[in-house]
Amino acid sequence: MLKHTLYTILLSILFFGCSASKQNVLSSDKKPTYTSKYVSQSGYYFALVEKNNNIWKIVDIKDMPIEKREKANQEILRISETYSEVRPYFEETNIKYNLSKFTCNNFNSKNNYTPCTSTLSSPLPDKNIFGFINFNSTSPKYKFIDEKLINNAVKETNLFNAIESKKNIFEYEESERSFNQASTAEEFNTFIEKYSYLKNAEQLVALAVQNRDVLLEKMRVEEEKKRAEEERLAKIHEQRTQIREKQLEKETSELEKMEQRAMQNFTKNIKKFRQTLKNGVDTNCGTIIEMKDSSVKVHYPVKNHGTEHWIDSNKIFPKGHGCRFVNGNYIAPATF
């Protein structure tokens, strides 16, 4: 019982240390000098490192996940933007997690990149260190992520400074994508404002300035054409309005002249008619049956007022103008 208790205590100490390692997987105490304004869109940087003859070297650094390693002696590290956290970037598998220990049974794939196949993980005891307890070959194999191994890889490769150096490439690639996506003067101007400080992008910035100015000039020319066209259409509209006004004025004048001629003809015809009055002439109120001084007697039946009536000859009209009596009194037709 005492032997088993001692083993349990030792295993607990190892697990506790592993738990602390998992929660604080990092890190070199020395942070790099930040030389770039670039910020990874994924929030992380990913490094493919390789160990040969106990020497770590960097194979590749990306700002997006590296999903696969090519060799068994390679590791994929995920580094936070502030370099405060460095962890292996393992593949998704069916590995069972228990705090900081990983169960590595025979059924776990040896081809996948996992804590069980990583050289950055260390084994937990699978047999009695003191010879108290023996585990058979089918017992679970446990591993934990070893912070010291990660720190060694980080320091040997000078990983943080390597990332800072690679940021210039990331930033240039980002600026190149941004340049290729720009199509308007406003977008090119935004590109210029964002990347004018970047030395690697000097040529792109110069091209962006050129493209922006060309587009601005094109916009200016198009605006001038548009303004000229608007002025041309406005002038045409004004001319047409003036023509319509003159035409309307002419038509109005012609109508007035026609009305004047009509009035003159009407007055002339009425005057001529009244100058030729005599017995037997048909008027607006019937036939003249008698004339006396400036009056004429006409035959025109009016209810309750007889059939003969005297009318002032200056108020008599030709036939067809209408005849009206009110209370036996003649009402002459309206004139102009």
Task: Provide a short characterization of the protein structure.
The protein is α+β, with helices and mostly antiparallel strands.
Keywords summarizing the entry:
14 strands, 4-stranded antiparallel β-sheet, alpha+beta, disordered N terminus, rod-shaped, 336 residues
Residue runs with pLDDT of under 50 for 5 or more positions = 1-28, 127-137
Helix content: 40-55%
Spatial arrangement of strands, main beta sheet: 2-1-3-4
Supply the number of helical segments.
5
How would the global form be characterised? rod-shaped
- Alpha-carbon distance between the termini? 138 Å
Please report which band the strand proportion falls in: under 5%, 5-15%, 15-25%, 25-35%, 35-45% or over 45%.
15-25%
**What structural class results from the helix and strand content?**
alpha+beta
Question: Would you kindly provide a written description of the structure presented here, covering whatever features stand out?
Answer:
Helices cover 42% and strands 19% of the residues. The protein has five helices and 14 strands. The protein has helices at residues 2-23, 147-157, 159-181, 185-195, 202-275; strands at 44-52, 55-62, 74-80, 86-88, 97-98, 101-103, 121-123, 142-145, 282-283, 286-292, 295-299, 308-312, 324-326, 329-331. The strands form four sheets. A four-stranded antiparallel beta sheet has the order 2-1-3-4, with helices on one face. It has a four-stranded antiparallel beta sheet with strand order 5-6-8-7. Helix 4 runs antiparallel to helix 5. The protein starts with a helix and ends in a 5-residue tail after the last strand.
